[in-house]
């Protein structure tokens, strides 16, 4: 965890004062634990309120800007992609909206009219980008500048688009604020750009319905009890240092709020190793995605030496009536406390990890914000959140494409690491890769340097190491990925 210096405290207290929040409520994300039933445009869902509070604390931050570069091949023209973009912003109401806060401090979305603009040569079209001067720079430079420019969500729509064409290739730079989207939004958003037609909310029927109020309240109470007995217990240590927290409870609610510059590194996961690894999931009774979170836990132990650690895992909480075009961010945060026994077998370690994951996911329907509020009201401290682990689909995964008109997508790093260490397995329809973000100066250099190698090598080793001990697995890992 970053050191809570007086300079950081001064900065964070200033942000809180400017936002109108109080110290005790600074890190909270809302006090309303009632189930979300609204499907109408305008009213914020509970996860959106949590994200909005984070935004209000530091509106100049770019930590929640998501940038993508899409390359269109085949017979797509700039004009055809622009036409698709215009359909998108017309139908995807969240993307053509600003946020107004009423006299009671409640945020609401209001739709505004925005138009795209062509440059003088009619070769570059932009939407939500004020200036197009100097746009002759290369794509990556322009994409980085667009991604690392803050949104003023009171006046800016949470979307920027730039469409250009050269040598039969159409390029789209898309930047969106996380308040407006989550991973469940990509099929509608990118599917419309790729197909040229409005895709709508094709995944609605696969999502859960909204729970009734009484079961939801009981689930929230149970989630708090689970937190206090596992990831929010007083004996949880920082995994990077192995130390118990020393800051006061009041100070702990401030310490997680400071964005830091980050570094991102990616590495491919071997396809053959992944196929063998997926067979292990059947052996230990877990899904492949859950097993990859288990790998993240083993990696955290191998990298830090902490056998007892908390990983923070994101999850989607979108309900059936919450269409992405009407309701934006519906994410949740699920902390999980893992205990690794070095003398136990690798198979048992993965089974134990699966138990932790599935037990924690029982409470995924309760938003993280009300849990934090309950912990704070009971005098607890902000939970240990040094390492985030996730398994996610690539933005274009599952989106139909023509063989003669392929579309590729790559992400643009916003330069910020939201956590000291973030680990992600990302899969498209053909390949899986690992992404590791870290905060230099917080994460030791030797841990950062080994992270991607440790993760990919674990996927290689585990299928043939189920009967060995975790200590033996880590020893082999150290031989293959030396410090």
Concise overview:
The chain has 483 residues and is an alpha+beta fold. Helices cover 34% and strands 20% of the residues. The longest helix has 17 residues, at 213-229.
Question: Which helices and strands, and how do they pair?
Answer:
Blueprint: H1 6-19, H2 46-57, E1 65-72, H3 78-91, E2 97-101, E3 107-111, E4 117-118, E5 124-127, H4 139-147, E6 159-166, E7 169-177, H5 186-195, H6 213-229, H7 249-252, E8 260-261, E9 263-268, H8 271-284, H9 288-304, E10 308-316, E11 331-339, H10 346-361, H11 368-377, E12 387-393, E13 407-412, E14 416-417, E15 421-427, E16 432-438, H12 445-461, H13 470-480
Parallel strand pairs: 12-15
Antiparallel strand pairs: 1-7, 1-13, 2-3, 4-5, 5-6, 6-7, 8-14, 9-16, 10-11, 15-16
Helix pairs in contact: 3-5, 6-11, 9-10, 9-12, 12-13
Can you walk through the features of this model?
The chain has 483 residues and is of the alpha+beta class. The chain has a domain at 213-395 and 414-480: Chloramphenicol Acetyltransferase, CATH 3.30.559.30. It contains 13 helices and 16 strands. The strands form five sheets. Strands 4-5-6-7-1-13 form a six-stranded antiparallel beta sheet, sandwiched between helices. A four-stranded mixed beta sheet has the order 9-16-15-12, with helices on one face. β2 (97-101) and β3 (107-111) form a beta hairpin. The radius of gyration is 23 Å and the shape is globular. Mean pLDDT is 89; it is low at 1-6 and 18-38. Residues 49-424 form the Condensation domain. InterPro entries: CAT-like_dom_sf (IPR023213), Condensation_dom (IPR001242). This is Putative non-ribosomal peptide synthetase. GO terms for molecular function: catalytic activity; phosphopantetheine binding.
